[in-house]
Amino acid sequence: MARQHRSRWLRLLRHRLLDESDVSRALDAEAMARLEARVEASERRHTGEIRLAVEAGLPLSYLWNDLSARDRAVTLFGKLRVWDTEQNNGVLIYLLMADHAIEIVADRGLSRAVDSTQWQSILHGMREAFRAGRFEQGLNQAIDAVDALLTARFPAGDSDVPHNELPDTPWTP
Question: Cα–Cα distance between 80 and 26 in angstroms, integer?
């Protein structure tokens, strides 16, 4: 019990010590602009929406209630309105730096068409890049993999006028 209590306090401390400056060091303004451009280019090839979210640490309420990165990703999926796309094919790619956690949350239109092994494969590639400190590369890999899934299942037709339902800029608190 003492070990679990200590672990909880260490997690709390780790999340409180990291802030937006840690995100900026890992992904500077130029990297964020390149990620935004990559999402924008991707969305010209399909009717889906990709949203990136990067956080240094969880909000205190999540830590206090011992919630996970997955819990936060699902909350942001709603808060950022990724679920609110016309074809229900939005995807949130979430990076939580304090826990070295990554999550992908896909709306029901895409989830029905993609099995869990494909999502796990994407996450595995991201983890390898993040472990090596290559955050931009890991996010690029994820964008490219999600782009391939969306292009295969929701391609932009000749008559489709590209419209952007969600911002392409990576979300940070």
Answer: 22
Q: CB-based contacts of 142: which residues, under 8 Å, 6+ apart?
A: 93, 102, 104, 122, 125, 126
The residues facing 155 across adjacent strands are: 46
Report whether pLDDT(143) > 90. yes
The DSSP element (H or E) to which 92 belongs, if any, is strand 90-96
CA 76, 52, 108, 123 torsion-angle sign: negative
Digit-coded pLDDT (tens) for 42-65: 999 999 999 999 999 999 999 989
For residue 143, which of 52, 53, 72 has the smallest C-alpha distance?
52
CA–CA dist 36, 38 (Å, integer) = 5
Checking if the pLDDT of 162 tops 70, the result is no
Confidence grade of residue 152 (pLDDT, cut at 50, 70, 90): very high
- CA 72 vs CA 13, 69, 92, 122: distances in Å: 18, 5, 11, 19
**Whole-angstrom distance, CA of residue 31 vs CA of residue 24:** 9
**How far apart are the C-alpha atoms of 159 and 149, rounded to whole Å?**
21
